């Protein structure tokens, strides 16, 4: 397995659990800036649900894609430093942040796709 395959959830979660970095049912606190960005996107989605606007929706979709690309770029840097025989705590922490950010972003993407399917 190459390191970039760790970005796949079915590989990342078990690896983080085995390392003791992620505990089942954990309520992990994501970075405040990420939460603020996702809250803004979520708020705009809520507004769009009651008052659809294709232009605003397009901007919102672009923001979600940009957030996902940034998240993947950050994770790729951490993954490149991952050594399964000698796991560095800082790298594991970055991968943990990636894991929880991705879960949060997937919820947003699901709402975006539901909204898109209505129109």
How would you portray this structure in words?
It is elongated and about 50 Å long. Helix 1 packs antiparallel against helix 4, helix 2 runs antiparallel to helix 3 (54-80) and helix 2 packs parallel to helix 4. With 119 residues, the protein is mostly helical. The chain contains four helices and no strands. Helices cover 72% and strands 0% of the residues. The chain has helices spanning 9-18, 32-50, 54-80, 89-118.
Largest sheet data: none
Taking all residues together, what is the mean pLDDT? 84
Apparent shape: elongated
The percentage helix is over 70%
Rg from C-alpha positions?
Answer: 16 Å
What percentage of amino acids are in beta strands? under 5%
By helix and strand content, what is the structural category?
Answer: mainly alpha
Which parts are unreliable, with pLDDT below 50 for 5 consecutive residues or more? none
Q: Output the number of helix runs.
A: 4
End-to-end CA span? 41 Å
Secondary structure: number of strands:
0
* Element-by-element helix/strand order: HHHH
Secondary structure: elements and pairs:
Blueprint: H1 9-18, H2 32-50, H3 54-80, H4 89-118
Helix pairs in contact: 1-4, 2-3, 2-4, 3-4
In short:
The chain is an all-alpha fold.
Short key terms for the protein model shown above:
elongated; 119 residues; mainly alpha
